[in-house]
């Protein structure tokens, strides 16, 4: 087994400790993890952790290849790479064959909290100094992308990218992004870079300046009935990034004829009046993560167009502070942990 250092969850929080990784299989690469993003799902997983199973969070990271298996062809030692929240899939079902490993019929293997498809062990995540992954689920980091800023692209980025691309958003499209947080600010950047006329919908006026700085052409306060009435049927696509349960009714009203409301932030049950879809032939959709082709395409698009998240980089030793601030939504717009301080931490 290989030994590295990682932030392990226990009842008192996260603590640095040694971690064993598997020896490289023929198609594996070992990645020195340099930067790992911090996501709301990490926070929720830590809240739900019962302490009985091993847990190392982190599912969006960048780093450098430090060793390759004998059958690896896509990478060499020294390559800059990125890894997201999916590290394996069955490879055989219709979704996998279509390049949508995120929808694998037998469920994709997640970067942490998943089940390794070979030995059955629990996967442990990127809050560590080294990660071992199949080469098919690592991505070359294009030249020009800052490794720290690129880390959140591997979760929030691809989640926002897939519906925009699937719905062929481009010049002339009218896109509204509901919520301007870690996910929403990337949806704005992508929509603008794709050429869409882009509007942010938020509960208060507080983020109007940020929205325009990010490139948004318009801003609507959702709690203002007059503004929402003026926006009725104005948009071809509404990207909904609200993470808490909420009523979709008012947002469906701003979707235009044959338009789509795509719910990305909340994955629980929703109630919809069918007539709210019927009037205007509207569609309700969702998306989560992305397949391998879309992820590679997104990374190249970001490099070509200068699209990266706005991040605050902290030493990984400040992870508890970052989690506390994340819980209070005290970040604009994503935390990224610098994992280099794990060298010699144990």
UniProtKB/TrEMBL annotation:
Residue spans crossing the bilayer: none
Catalytic activity, EC: 1.1.1.2
Cofactor: Zn(2+)
Top class in the EC scheme: oxidoreductase
Gene3D superfamilies: Medium-chain alcohol dehydrogenases, catalytic domain, NAD(P)-binding Rossmann-like Domain
SMART domains found in the cross-reference section: PKS_ER
Gene Ontology terms, MF aspect: alcohol dehydrogenase (NADP+) activity; zinc ion binding
InterPro entries, sorted: ADH-like_C (IPR013149), ADH-like_N (IPR013154), ADH_Zn_CS (IPR002328), CAD-like (IPR047109), ER (IPR020843), GroES-like_sf (IPR011032), NAD(P)-bd_dom_sf (IPR036291)
Keyword match Oxidoreductase: yes
The entry's keywords: Metal-binding, Oxidoreductase, Zinc
Domain Enoyl reductase (ER): 9-337
Entry superkingdom: Bacteria
Coiled coil start-end: none
Catalytic activity, as annotated: a primary alcohol + NADP(+) = an aldehyde + NADPH + H(+)
SUPFAM superfamilies in the record: GroES-like, NAD(P)-binding Rossmann-fold domains
Family per similarity comment: Belongs to the zinc-containing alcohol dehydrogenase family.
Protein name, UniProt field: alcohol dehydrogenase (NADP(+))
Organism taxonomic ancestry: Bacteria, Bacillati, Actinomycetota, Actinomycetes, Micrococcales
């Amino acid at each position: 087994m290989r030994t590295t250092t990682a932030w392990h969850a226990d009842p008192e929080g996260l603590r640095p400790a040694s971690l064993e990784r598997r020896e490289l299989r023929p198609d594996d690469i070992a990645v020195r993890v340099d930067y790992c993003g911090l996501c709301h799902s990490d926070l929720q997983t830590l809240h739900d952790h019962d302490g009985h199973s091993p847990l190392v969070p982190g599912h969006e990271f960048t780093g450098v290849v430090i060793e390759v298996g004998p059958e690896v062809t896509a990478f060499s030692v020294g390559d800059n790479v990125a890894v997201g929240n999916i590290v394996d899939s069955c490879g055989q079902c219709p979704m996998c064959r279509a390049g949508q490993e995120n929808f694998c019929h037998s469920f994709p293997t997640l970067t942490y909290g998943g089940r390794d498809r070979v030995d059955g062990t629990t996967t442990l995540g990127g809050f560590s100094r080294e990660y071992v992954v199949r080469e098919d689920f690592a991505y070359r980091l294009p030249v020009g992308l800052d490794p720290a800023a690129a880390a959140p692209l591997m979760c929030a980025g691809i989640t926002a990218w897939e519906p925009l691309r699937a719905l062929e958003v481009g010049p002339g499209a009218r896109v509204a992004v509901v919520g301007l947080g870690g996910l929403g600010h990337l949806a704005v950047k992508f929509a603008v870079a794709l050429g869409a006329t882009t509007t942010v919908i938020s509960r208060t006026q507080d983020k109007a300046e940020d929205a325009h700085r990010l490139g948004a052409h318009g801003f609507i306060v959702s709690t203002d009935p007059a503004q929402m009435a003026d926006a009725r049927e104005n948009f071809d696509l509404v990207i909904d990034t609200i993470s808490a349960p909420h009523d979709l009714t008012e947002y469906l009203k701003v979707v235009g004829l044959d338009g789509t409301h795509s719910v990305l932030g909340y994955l629980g049950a929703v109630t919809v009046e069918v007539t709210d879809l019927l009037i205007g032939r509207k569609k309700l959709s969702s998306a989560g993560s992305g397949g391998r082709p879309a992820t590679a395409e997104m990374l190249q698009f970001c490099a070509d167009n200068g699209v990266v998240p706005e991040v605050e980089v902290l030493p990984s030793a400040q992870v508890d502070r970052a989690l506390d601030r994340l819980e209070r939504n005290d970040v604009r717009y994503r935390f990224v942990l610098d994992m280099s301080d794990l060298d010699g931490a144990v």
